[in-house]
Amino acid sequence: MFGFGHPGDILIKRVIGLPGDKVACCDAQGRVTVNGVPLNEQSYLYPGDSPSENRFDIVVPPDRLWVMGDHRLISDDSRDHLGEPGGGTIPENAVIGRAFVIIWPISRWRFLPIPATFEQPALNAAAASAPAAGDAAGLLPARLEPSSPAAPLALGFAAAVPVTWLQRRTRLRFARRRAARRAARDPAGRPPSA
C-alpha cells in the first residue's frame, strides 16, 4: 500500500512530516527535528530504540508524507526508502485512516492519543506557509483526537460479541454432529474391530 512490505499489507506508521515540512535527523541530542523543532519521542518509541540510526534531511514534497515506525530499529519506513522516487515519502492518498485505539490483546487495551510533541505550534510553520498542495490542508485536522473515540470502540465490541457467539455456537454444533455420527456407527460404544 505504501510501497513498503507486501502488496495488500496495511501498515501502521507515525506521520512525522507533512508536505512542506523539513524533517531531519539528528540534532546534537540525537533527536529527529521537524522544521528545526526537536521531537520528544520517548512516550511512543519502543524501549531502548533511539530516534534514528540513519541520518537524513528532507523537505517533504507536495502531496507526500514522511512516516516512521515506533520500533525504529526494525521499522521499514521512510528512512529505508530515501533513494526511491519520492525520497522515502509516501503519497497522501495511500493513507486510509488514523489508528486511535488498541483493542487486542485485551491486556494492551488503550487509546492512542496524539503525543504532546506534535502539538508544538512551530511544527506547522512550514506546512502553513507552503502553498496548499493537494489535500495537505485536509490532513492537519487528522492531528486532532477523534471527536468521539468511544463510538467506534463500542461499535467494534457490539460487532465482535455476536460474531464470537456465532463462532462458538457453530463449533459446538459441529462437535455434537461428530459425536452423534460416532455414536451411530457404534451404538454400544465399543472400539472398532480390526
The number of distinct β-strands equals 9
Computed over alpha carbons, the radius of gyration is 25 Å
Oligomer: single chain
**Any low-confidence stretches, pLDDT <50, length ≥5?**
131-146
Mean pLDDT: 79
| Helix and strand element order | EEEEEEEEEHHH
Question: Explain this structure to me?
Answer:
It is a single chain. This protein is an alpha+beta fold and 194 residues long. The protein contains 3 helices and 9 strands; from the N terminus they run βββββββββααα. The strands form 3 sheets. It has a 4-stranded antiparallel beta sheet, with no helix packed on it. A 3-stranded antiparallel beta sheet has the order 1-6-7, with no helix packed on it. A hairpin with a 7-residue loop joins β8 and β9 (110-111). 20% of the residues are buried.
